[in-house]
Structure to design on (365 residues):
């Protein structure tokens, strides 16, 4: 009972309320993606238990969606895991940016906070508590727990909130998928969801080059053994994007 | 447990490992860490390349590695998601367009 009470007190504290308010719009969009991911997991052949297990254990929508065509094709594990790692590389960037706030914690606590990181949370958290700005103003250097408590409560509340929204919508999608007739052949829904995710990322020339080269090489290298074509394509796409990006980098350097 | 079930479950556990590592490795790193500007930009492209490398063959090719035609439900779905995105710039519209046109093409053509 007292645990429940302290949870209520925690979620009513101003930073927690702020964190939930800030991530609310993203969470609504995320609920749709969670449901779609749930449907996609079942439609691409996972059992209900496997789909729920994947949702709870993996908790990374784009990596889950990306793994589905690979599972359906019977790709070897290292290929599936490597592509998840690559799709997840953005979490590495987020965790480096958020790291200063959690530095004072023990490693199990850092692990727990790290696992709660998501795209929506990173966007809102790093906007409200920009570590480089805070470091410049000396707020983080004080390492005073009292000062550092606000961002941490914000982060905790928002990450728990997003986790709950994602898991409940994903499981709702898994249950809903049982009702979809098999003749609909919705296994392609994972690919459609990935396309919709990819389009907003192609904001500049380098992004378009990246997608075209990686996709083209993937088609040409489809016959390589052990699905090695996937890794070759990623490498080709990233290299092509870096080459296409070079003038862009110089422009941003000059303007800043 | 059948062989296929084991294949999926081991795959899922490995995916969990891949996600936990990417989310926490540098968080657990004992020292302060900053990524060079160029590396950060390069890292931004890797997920796009991986997603493209997974979806482009699964869109364009039929099992047996032959190209699909333009009237294939998959082609129509992709066109619908592209049009949905460029008209509204909303991911959800793009996805809903793709799914509904995919189903429509499948049952009507």
């Amino acid at each position: 009972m007292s645990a429940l009470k302290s949870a209520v007190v925690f979620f009513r504290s101003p930073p927690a309320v702020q964190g939930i308010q800030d991530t609310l719009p993203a969470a609504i969009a995320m609920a749709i993606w969670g449901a779609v991911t749930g449907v996609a997991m079942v439609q691409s052949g996972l059992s209900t238990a496997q789909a729920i297990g994947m949702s709870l254990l993996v908790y990374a929508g784009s990596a889950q969606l990306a793994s589905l065509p690979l599972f359906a094709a019977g790709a070897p594990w290292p290929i599936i895991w490597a592509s998840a790692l690559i799709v997840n590389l953005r979490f590495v960037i987020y965790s480096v940016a958020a790291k200063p706030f959690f530095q004072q914690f023990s490693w199990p606590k850092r692990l727990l906070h790290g696992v709660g990181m998501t795209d929506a949370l990173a966007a809102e958290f790093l906007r409200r508590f920009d570590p480089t700005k805070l470091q410049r103003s000396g707020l983080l250097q004080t390492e005073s727990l009292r000062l550092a408590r606000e961002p941490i409560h914000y982060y905790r509340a928002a990450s728990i909130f997003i986790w709950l929204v994602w898991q409940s919508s994903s499981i709702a999608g898994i249950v809903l998928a049982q009702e979809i007739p098999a003749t609909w052949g919705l296994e392609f829904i994972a690919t459609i969801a990935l396309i919709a995710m990819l389009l907003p990322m192609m904001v500049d020339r380098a992004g378009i080059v990246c997608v075209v080269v990686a996709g083209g090489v993937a088609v040409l290298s489809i016959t390589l053994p052990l699905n090695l074509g996937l890794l070759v394509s990623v490498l080709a796409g990233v290299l092509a994007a870096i080459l296409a990006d070079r003038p862009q980098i110089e422009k941003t350097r000059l303007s800043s | 447990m059948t062989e296929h079930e084991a294949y999926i479950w081991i795959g899922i556990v490995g995916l969990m490992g891949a996600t936990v590592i990417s989310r926490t490795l540098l968080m657990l790193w004992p020292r302060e860490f900053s990524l060079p500007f160029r590396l950060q930009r390069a890292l931004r492209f890797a997920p796009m390349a991986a997603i493209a490398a997974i979806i482009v063959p699964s869109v364009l090719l039929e099992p047996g590695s032959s190209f699909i035609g333009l009237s294939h439900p998959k082609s129509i779905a992709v066109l619908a998601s592209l049009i949905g995105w460029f008209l509204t710039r909303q991911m959800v519209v793009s996805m809903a367009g793709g799914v509904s046109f995919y189903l429509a093409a499948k049952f009507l053509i």
About this structure: Helices of chain B lie at 3-28, 37-60, 73-88, 91-108.
